[in-house]
From TrEMBL, chain A:
This is Response regulatory domain-containing protein. Pfam families: Response_reg. PANTHER family: RESPONSE REGULATORY DOMAIN-CONTAINING PROTEIN, STRESS RESPONSE REGULATOR PROTEIN 1. Its main location: cytoplasm. GO terms for molecular function: metal ion binding. Residues 2-119 form the Response regulatory domain. Keywords: Cytoplasm, Magnesium, Metal-binding, Phosphoprotein, Two-component regulatory system. The keyword Cytoplasm applies.
TrEMBL record, chain B:
Its EC number is 3.1.3.-. Its main location: cytoplasm. This is Protein phosphatase CheZ. The keyword tRNA processing does not apply. Pfam families: CheZ (PF04344). It is found in: Cytoplasm. PANTHER family: PROTEIN PHOSPHATASE CHEZ. Homodimer. One of its GO terms (cellular component) is cytoplasm. Belongs to the CheZ family.
Amino acid sequence: MKILIVDDFSTMRRIIKNLLRDLGFTNTAEADDGNTALPMLQSGSFDFLVTDWNMPGMSGIDLLRAVRADERLKHLPVLMVTAEAKRDQIIEAAQAGVNGYVVKPFTAQALKEKIEKIFERVQAK
Amino acid sequence: MALSKDPGQATAQEFELSLKEHAQQLVELLEKGQFGEAILVIHSINQARDRGLYYEVGQLTRALHNSIVNFQIDTSQVLGEGSEVSKISDASDRLDYVVKLTDKAANRTMDLVESSAPIVSELGQEAYALRAEWERLQRREMAAGEFRDLYKRIGEFLEKTEQSSATVSAHLNDILIAQDYQDLTGQVIKRVTTLVHDVEESLVNLVRMAGQVDRIAGIDHAKSSQDTKKTSDRGEGPQIHADTREDVVSGQDEVDDLLSSLGF
């Protein structure tokens, strides 16, 4: 299970990386915005994407749309971990095809639940 | 800022009053056919308007000057005499400092957590292994040779536990100390908030004065179209008053409710 963590703040990437490690996911890579993440996703064999929304360069929602528009990546599970908390934005992300949405500040438990739920669904398919 | 609550109001009223008086006079003179004197009245109306205008422009300039001077005073207090850094760039320097400090504290905390976690987990694993052996001993399933091994391992484990707990509690202390940024950043942010408030107040005063000048001068600005386009794709960042806003969720539970209502 290879996971890409995309956030412009290195501390947030590190927190998510540590929480993922705690959940048994040790194979992670990091990117600081959509522009660096997309080529990594296209060339690497990632199984899961965790992304922030608000980032310089390409935002998380644009990254999500780019992933869904890419023939080889469109089935990649995407979890959004973001401070964006407007209802419209959550609906927008859902319409863009997000698999899970965690608002910051979040708990380790919330992140764990969402990730497990996404994997359950992916495996059920 | 040393401005009256409603700058220019008095000037405007004065001008309007004199305009009314002169208008009447003007009509009378025109009716009587005294055009020369009528022109003089028009001239004095113009003069009254110009006087008000110059007065307001003067006020405006003084207010602007005052706010600039105030900024400089504040800056020199902060950065020492002779500094020519503007208050705004000082404020962004200060906020950069907050970012740096919080970043450092977060990384320091995570370093300590990351170095504590394996120590604790190693102790746990060793305790788990020893307990299995201990239970065998209690059930008298242990040979004398094995017991000597266990005896030695328990001695080593106790020593290791002592060292590890000292290390971890030192780390916990350091984690505690790493939170001292809150005090420093709190002070810096309060100062910047005060600056923003002051600048806003100065701007509001300037706008109000400019409005009076426009009124006296009879200038009518076409309302600039309000740019209300949302920056939705870029994102808005954390919502501060989430609990009082209808369009914002106030936590993960509400996100989950919303998503499940959408069929997630």
